[in-house]
Structures are given as structure tokens and as C-alpha cells.
Design a protein that fits this description.
8 helices; 2 domains; about 85% helix; mainly alpha
Length: about 190
């Protein structure tokens, strides 16, 4: 919502600047009116300069920074995604030795989330991914804590659905990698 308001404000400032220039060039009494009202002219021009600086230029810089960080954010998401898959497989495993690794895998996932969350939270696509990983992590922890609950088909279906949502939310982040890396990442077990 905040970003929409900033962009709307930037468009409004740009339109106002264009309208003032057009009126100054085309309307006969426009220039003399501003000449006679010096304080109004100073206030309007100062506000437009501050608005243009704060909204338009800051928005351009912020967009450039988001674009520059996009691959780094995707790389952090890849690490979290890989760990989420490992935790998911450990919790759902029928092998007792793999299932015994579930608490360690969940701790690793929690640690990765704590490290990656600040950078993931600033990116809208990564934020969606982060929220879905949080959901599956809490469901995996609850499942791992309950003895034998993985055998319940409803629980397994719920976890599978949550993992599918994580995979879907990771796709836009995966698209930030070069194509040759995308195919390798998709081929990961």
C-alpha cells in the first residue's frame, strides 16, 4: 500500500510539473499572475522540488536497488527452499533413521529463515515465499512433535499441499537466475 501511494504521489508531482510548464507556455496571463504572487510562487516551487526529489528520484533509486538485489534475494530464497525440502522429506520419511534427523533439519530451517528473513521481507515475491515457508515450517514442527501423526493421510495431504504452495511461490524467484541455472535447480532432488 505504501509503495502504491509513493508511486501515485510521484505521478501527481510529475503531472503538476508538466501542467505548470504547459500553462506557462500557452496561457497568456499565467506568468504575470505568478510574478505578482511571489510567496505563493516560492512555496509551490519549493514543494514541487521537494516532492520531485523525495518521490520521483527516490522511487527510481529504490527500483534500481531492488533490481540489483534481486538475484541475491533469490539465492537466499534458494538456500531456504532447499532446507525446507530437506525438512519436509525428513518429517514425511518412513525410514526411522531419516525421521530421526527431522528435528535437526527443522532447526537448520529455522536458522536459515532467521538469517534470510530481513532481505526476503523487503522483496514482494520473496515475502510471499517467506510467509509460505513459515506456514510449512510450523506444520512440520507440529507434525514432527506428534508421534505417528504422519501416518494420517489428512496430515500428509496438508503437508504436501503446503510444500506445493512453497514451490509455487519459489518459481518467480527462480526466474531471476540465468536459464542454465534454472534447469539445474529444478533437477535438484
Amino acid at each position: 500500500m505504501h509503495q502504491v501511494l509513493r508511486r501515485l504521489g510521484a505521478v501527481l508531482i510529475a503531472c503538476t510539473l508538466i501542467a505548470l510548464v504547459v500553462c506557462d507556455v500557452t496561457v497568456a496571463g499565467f506568468g504575470p499572475w505568478w510574478d505578482q504572487h511571489a510567496i505563493t510562487t516560492s512555496i509551490v516551487s519549493s514543494l514541487l522540488i521537494v516532492g520531485a526529489t523525495a518521490l520521483i528520484f527516490d522511487e527510481v533509486v529504490a527500483a534500481r536497488q531492488r533490481r540489483d538485489r534481486a538475484v541475491a534475494v533469490a539465492a537466499q530464497a534458494l538456500i531456504v527452499y532447499g532446507q525446507a525440502r530437506e525438512a519436509y522429506q525428513a518429517v514425511l520419511s518412513s525410514d526411522p533413521s531419516s525421521r530421526a534427523q527431522a528435528p535437526e533439519e527443522l532447526r537448520d530451517l529455522a536458522s536459515n529463515l532467521l538469517v534470510a528473513a530481513p532481505s526476503l521481507f523487503d522483496d514482494p515475491a520473496a515475502r510471499t515465499f517467506l510467509l509460505r515457508v513459515d506456514k510449512i515450517m510450523s506444520a512440520l514442527v507440529a507434525t514432527a512433535a506428534g508421534p505417528g501423526s504422519v501416518q494420517d493421510p489428512g496430515v500428509k495431504d496438508h503437508l504436501t499441499d503446503l510444500m506445493s504452495q512453497v514451490q509455487q511461490s519459489f518459481e518467480p524467484l527462480l526466474g531471476r537466475f540465468p536459464p542454465e541455472y534454472q534447469s539445474r535447480i529444478r533437477a535438484m532432488p
